[in-house]
Amino acid sequence: MDRKELELQMQQEGRLPPGQSVTLKFPVLHYGAVPLFDPATWFFRIFGEVEQEQRWDWEAFQALPRRKLCYDLHCVTRWSKFDTHWEGILISDLIHAGLIQPLLSARFVIQHAENEFSANLPLEVVVSDRFMLATHYEGQPITPEHGYPVRGLIGAVPGNREAKDVYLWKGAKWLRGLEFSSTDKPGFWEQAGYHNEADIWKEQRTGS
Ligand SMILES: Nc1nc2c(c(=O)[nH]1)N[C@H]1C(S)=C(S)[C@@H](COP(=O)(O)O)O[C@H]1N2
Ligand SMILES: [Mo]
Questions:
Q1: CA–CA gap between residue 202 and residue 169 (Å, rounded)
Q2: Which ligand is the nearest neighbour of the Cα of 34?
Q3: pTM value?
Q4: How far is the CA of 51 from the centre of ligand 1 (A)?
């Protein structure tokens, strides 16, 4: 199927948000340089409004429970990529396993990545199956430019419109930690003028 045919099909299935068009490629978009990964010094932090802070080295991180899920990706620069396959870690699984215990005061989760990059999401989005700590894309470790070794990934779940869907920028590549917070803390692109809510169905691209 070519690009235009797929676009028509996605539109008919109600999966193409307003103002978006289909890409068959996987564009790369970020600010700054691709950071290097050193497994010997890398660690991942869970901190802020949680019962107990965590710090996993690369070996411990790889032992966390994993899942494979399919997402539709929607970028604020107007491309959408459908039926992408990812493997990674769901926050709800870590909560059920007792590895993360958010305090009742936690209402937002701030992703902290290399080079001071951050992205903010409401807690309910981060604990949903729309958000994962992704390590693999289409069966392979994600490439350096897409966030190796771990990225926050936010996608729409095909056929499920029950929860809020947000643009792809709210997933931080080269992710190093999650901060659970009682207050919202607008991230890098949100401070640069992108919309804090970023609802793809309402076209919340810029503004607040
Ligand atoms: N660390 C980091 N993550 C980031 C960004 C960035 O600048 N730095 N840009 C965001 C934006 S604007 C988009 S559209 C997506 C793009 O992901 P991709 O390059 O895998 O397509 O990454 C998001 N995550
Ligand atoms: Mo973006």
A1: 16
A2: 1
A3: 0.97
A4: 30
